[in-house]
Design a protein that fits this description.
The structure is a single chain. It is built from 14 helices and no strands. By secondary structure, the protein is mainly α. The longest helix is centred in the middle third of the chain and has 51 residues.
Length: 425
């Protein structure tokens, strides 16, 4: 009788969520998790000019690119492994393991003096971050209806630029007193702060899904490969663009003769735009559809990326351009995630998102390396032909290719449905 009452209560809560469309409590918890993830991802790029000036660390521009890529290599492996590990551990345990991994790694990074050890710890932090993101998105999608799924996922992904905004603000205010090591320790403590929320988050998701987020005895889920392949190409391009900006914006603006304080302000503005834009563009996607909104956001990103180094804007105009870029650049990937989450069955969602984000991380891995190579090999100069200008142009080109890849999604969905029908005969 007690078991029956519990099941009935769970079903009632699931029906309540469907009536509301979104369980905003679960979405808020997932957003907080993504905020801490965003802090970890952005703090390295924000503190890079400071680390390059610390002789005891031994970083050069070339080595900094390798260290910057290490976190994305870790995210690749985290994303690829999350489907299988979540099957055996359950979503709640998977989330806890990922948070602990990147928190411990951040604390360790604050204590080292060797670039190779810094690289190893950033890789481990990346593994934790790469496993947390698809887990959070799969749990978020379980807490929303189909119509409001893009808004829920976009809202949660707004946590990443929010975390970047916090990282930029703390760097601007506290870098002189805390140093980059203190800022890394702070990120580790933020991860520890998350752990009490995980159990509550998992319970809400289980209630919303009318089931459990714990381990289930069933076949290991397989991703929808046609959709995943298209998603991998689009994700590669959009992550290369966005994480290239996250890693190099501060340094690029100093190369364009913007003072460090001004460059840090622009990094803050980029993340403010990302936080606002993720939610705003999620609302737009509800009205006009995820794919149309993605294409428009991608084209606007290309225009903004070319405008920044062109010299056509400065002062307040430059602030506006960077704000708009912050609004649209991360939104492209958010909408790819939403399209994939809507295009695959619920049981394959974590695996499909994990594979897409995992393989697509190669773009994020390439971004710091591409930036460091162009800056090291092209002479400094203003305009589109200088080293910093060519980095922006390269990011604009990859964004445009990503838009082209995203236009293949309707074909992928039709093909996946046809394969499903043929296999069911």
């Amino acid at each position: 009788m007690v078991l029956r009452d519990r099941v009935t209560s769970r079903e009632e809560k699931s029906l309540e969520m469907r009536d509301r469309g979104i369980d905003w409590g679960a979405v808020a918890m997932a957003t907080i998790v993504m905020l801490v993830e965003g802090y970890d991802l952005v703090i390295y790029g924000n503190t890079l000019p400071i680390m390059l000036k610390e002789p005891s660390l031994g970083l050069t521009v070339g080595v900094a690119g390798i260290v910057g890529s290490a976190v994305f290599v870790g995210m690749l492996f985290g994303g690829l492994s999350v489907g299988t590990l979540a099957h055996y551990l359950g979503l709640r345990s998977m989330l806890t393991v990922g948070i602990c991994c990147f928190s411990i790694s951040m604390a360790g990074a604050a204590l080292i003096h060797e670039p190779w050890l810094f690289c190893v710890l950033r890789f481990l932090a990346g593994w934790g971050l790469g496993s947390v993101m698809p887990t959070c998105m799969a749990m978020t999608r379980q807490s929303s209806t189909t119509r409001l799924g893009p808004l829920a996922i976009s809202t949660v992904m707004a946590g990443i630029p929010l975390g970047g905004m916090v990282a930029s603000l703390f760097t601007y205010v506290g870098a002189a007193t805390m140093g980059w090591r203190g800022l890394f320790v702070l990120g580790s403590l933020l991860g520890v702060f998350l752990l009490p929320f995980v159990a509550s988050f998992a319970r809400r998701v289980a209630n919303n899904a009318g089931g459990s987020s714990q381990r289930q005895e069933r076949k290991i889920p397989q991703p929808s490969w046609i959709i995943v392949l298209i998603g991998c190409l689009a994700t590669f391009c959009f992550l290369l663009t966005y994480y290239g900006l996250v890693t190099w914006l501060t340094q690029l603006m100093t190369e364009l003769r913007v003072p460090l304080s001004g460059a840090l302000q622009l990094a803050l503005v980029l993340n403010v735009g990302g936080a606002v834009g993720s939610v705003a563009i999620g609302v737009v996607a509800m009205r006009f559809g995820s794919l149309r909104t993605l294409v428009c956001a991608g084209v606007v990103s290309v225009v903004m990326l070319v405008l920044i180094p062109s010299g056509a804007v400065s002062g307040t105009g430059l602030m506006v351009v960077v704000t708009v870029l912050g609004m649209v650049a991360p939104a492209t990937q958010n909408l790819v995630n939403a399209i994939i989450a809507e295009s695959v069955p619920a049981e394959n969602r974590a695996a499909s998102l994990g594979k897409t984000l995992g393989v697509g991380r190669v773009g994020a891995i390439a971004a710091p390396l591409l930036g460091s190579w162009l800056l090291a090999s092209v002479p400094k100069g203003a305009g589109l032909t200088g080293g910093a200008g060519l980095v922006f142009v390269a990011f604009a080109c990859t964004c445009l290719v990503g838009v082209g890849a995203a236009l293949l999604f309707p074909f992928g969905v039709r093909r996946a449905q046809a394969v499903k029908v043929e296999s069911g005969r």
